[in-house]
From TrEMBL:
Signal peptide: none annotated. This is Cupin-like domain-containing protein. It comes from the Bacteria. SMART domains: JmjC. Residues 79-272 form the JmjC domain. PROSITE patterns: JMJC. Gene3D superfamilies: Cupin.
Length: 337
């Protein structure tokens, strides 16, 4: 029998203007109950799904959005096909009002086709929306996105940025795992993914423990919460999260930001390059390169390059925007040989 997830720690009494560093630099997840309770969008969605839909349309000016359409038998789960060489949904480009029409037209169907608009920049899709529905994140240069759909299930995955996600309509269940649970979540391909991030292959509604036995251990470390309109969740960088939209009409607003400069590339690039250059080396050579990475990356300090004059340290010196561009050009030159 699988263990039940622990409740995610909750914080009450915060407002969109009182989020501070203690919250936004947390290394563990937090539920921020009622954070956006006063947003007009939240008040509209609490009145009815139709009122929430109408509120969104007030700001829509005709932009095309990316959407995913799943068949009724997918039960809302966006995933691979059986062979893992394709997907069980169809990506489309459509007008947002047409997507909203589709969600409303199918709301009473059981099971219904799944409709999902994912990670769409709010300022592009709904200009003016954030003037009345927003969070104050201080000096953080956050990307604000909107996610709209009916009953959906998004497989467990991680994101590099820190994340505050606000439920603006409907209800959602979040199940989170700390980063070290990677081996127990049975992650699929890293270079062929449904939406950019590698995902767990475990069906959380029907986990096959014969096929994925270590998932039972992952569940012993799981944390979960169900959020209503106005509630928010802080998901730290690299925490695995599985998200279920539980209502026939759901709206999520999220804010992503990184604790590193924009000119730094994603570490996934290093992972892919390491697979290309190191993974299949003889074991003794891989161990040497593990020590080299520890020396220059994971255990690096002031003494690592102290014996080299500062002006001659090159890539071993502090990384700057110009230095990042130079490194990227060097890598491209070497990879394109």
């Amino acid at each position: 029998m699988l263990a039940s997830p622990e409740a995610i720690r909750e914080v009450h009494g915060l407002t969109p203007t009182t989020l501070g560093d203690e919250i936004l630099t947390s290394t563990t997840p937090l539920v921020l109950r009622g954070l956006a309770a006063d947003w007009p969008m939240v008040r509209a969605s609490l009145e009815s799904d139709q009122a929430g839909d109408a509120y969104l349309r007030r700001y829509y000016q005709g932009a095309t959005v990316g959407a995913m359409l799943g068949a009724p038998d997918s039960a809302g789960r966006f995933f691979y096909n059986e062979q893992l060489n394709g997907f069980n949904f169809q990506p489309v480009r459509a007008k947002l009002n047409a997507v909203l029409d589709e969600i409303q037209a199918k709301r009473d169907m059981h099971p219904a086709p799944t409709v999902y608009v994912g990670s769409t920049t709010i300022d592009t899709c709904l200009p003016g929306f954030r003037q009345h529905n927003d969070l104050d994140l201080g000096a953080r240069d956050a990307l604000a996105s909107i996610w709209i759909g009916n009953r959906t299930r998004i497989a467990a995955h991680y994101d590099l940025p820190d994340n505050v996600a606000v439920v603006a309509g409907g209800r959602r269940r979040f199940t989170l795992f700390p980063p070290e649970q990677l081996p127990n979540l049975y992650i699929g391909p890293i270079d062929f993914t449904p939406a950019g991030q590698a995902i767990s292959l475990v069906d959380f509604h029907q986990p096959d423990l014969d096929k994925f036995p270590r998932f039972a251990e992952a569940m012993r470390h799981a944390q979960s919460a169900e959020l209503a309109p106005g509630d928010a969740i802080f998901i730290p960088s690299m925490w695995w999260h599985h998200i279920e939209a539980l209502s026939p009409f759901n709206v999520l607003i999220n804010y992503w930001w990184r604790q590193s400069p924009d000119y730094m590339d994603t570490p996934t690039t290093a992972l892919m390059t390491a697979i290309l250059t190191m993974r299949d080396l003889p074991p003794a050579q891989r161990k040497v390169w593990q020590d080299i990475f520890n020396h220059y990356i994971f255990e690096a300090g002031e003494e690592t390059a102290a014996h080299i004059p500062p002006a001659a340290r090159g890539a071993l010196g502090p990384l700057t925007a110009d230095g990042a561009r130079a490194l990227r050009a060097l890598l491209l030159q070497r990879l394109n040989r």
